[in-house]
Amino acid sequence: MALLAVDLVKTYPGGRGAAPVRALDGLSVEVAAGAVVALLGRNGAGKSTAVKILTTLARPDSGQAWVAGIDALRDAASADAVRRSIGLVSQKASSDPMATGRENLVLAGRIQGLSRSAAAARAGELLARFDLDGAGDRLAETYSGGMARKLDVAIGLVHGPRVLFLDEPTTGLDPEARGQMWAEIARLSAEERTTVLLTTHYLEEADRLADRVVIVDAGRVVVEGAPEELKSELRGDTVQVELTTASAAALFALDRLPGLREASADGTRLRARADSGARAVPAVLAALDEVGAEVASVTVARPSLDDVYLRHVGRAFQEVAA
Q1: Strand partners, 62
Q2: pTM for this one?
Q3: Do 251 and 168 lie in a common domain?
Q4: For residue 315, is it within any domain?
Q5: Please, how many CA atoms are within 13 Å of residue 110, restricted to the half-sphere of its CB?
Q6: What is the pLDDT of residues 80-100, one digit of tens each?
Q7: Do residue 180 and residue 143 come from a single domain?
Q8: Residue 94 vs residues 9, 22, 102, 311: alpha-carbon distances, Å
Q9: Is residue 319 situated within a structural domain?
Q10: Per-residue pLDDT tens for 184-201?
Q11: Are the CB atoms for 66 and 4 separated by under 8 Å?
C-alpha cells in the first residue's frame, strides 16, 4: 500500500472567539502502489489538510498515516524519509523566476541529494519530457502559465519519487497543455509505477485519469471507488431542465411525476433521474407547462461524476467548485 491514512482528525482554532474548525473528522483512505487517485470535494472539505498531513507539512490530532511504507507520524527521522520518497506540486509556483528552467531543476536535484552530474542529466531529461528543452536556458519568469506549470511538475519529479502529490495540476492550462499533462500523469502511473494523488476541480480530469475517486465532505470520506463503478450505481439517465426563471412549483411538479426520482433544483436548473430519460422528457415538459414554468432547454445524459457527487454530498460539484 503506497498511502494509508486511518481515522485522521485535525482541528484548527476558530480565532476571535469562534468555535474550533474540525478540518478532518476521522478521514481514512488507502491508495495502492502505482494507482492514480483523485480527491474531490468543496473548498474546506478537508482535502488540503489531508495532503498536508500525508506530506509531513502538518500533524493530526489523532490517527495514523503511512506513506511509501513509512510511518509518517512516528518521529522526525521517519518524516524525513517520507520527504525523500515523495514529490509535492502545490498550486503555488515552486520555481525561482530569476533562474532558468534548467537551473531550477538542477538545484531541486541537488537539494534532493543528486550529484551535480546526475542533477544536470536529470534536468535535461525532464526538460525534454515536458517539451521545455527549447526554453531550458530561459529565465522561468519568461515562461507562459502552461510552461511554468510543467516546470513545477518536473521539479516535483526530479528525484524520481515513489509517490507524487499534485494539487490542481492543470488549473489555468490551455486544452493542449492539459492534454500533455494528462498523458504524463498516465505515463508515470503505467510505466514508472509512480503513485499519484491529485486534487482537481475538473471532473473530466478525475474521470479520465483516476483509477479511484475519493469524495470528501466535512472531513470524512463519503464515497470512493472506480469512476465507472460509482457511475454504474446510479441507475438510468439524468434529465436536466434549464428554466428561464426559478420556480418552486416546477420542482414540486417533477417530484410528483411517476418514473422520476431524486428531483432537485439549483436556481433555474432542475435535475431528476429516470430509467429512460428519452421516454421521460415528454412527461417532464407537459408537467412543467402545466405549472407555467418556461423551459429554456432539456438535456438527457448518462450518469456522470457530477451526479455521483450530487447523490452523496447533496449538491452539484460545479456549485461547490465555483
Answers
A1: 9
A2: 0.84
A3: no
A4: no
A5: 9
A6: 999 999 999 988 888 999 999
A7: yes
A8: 28, 29, 14, 37
A9: no
A10: 999 999 999 999 999 988
A11: yes
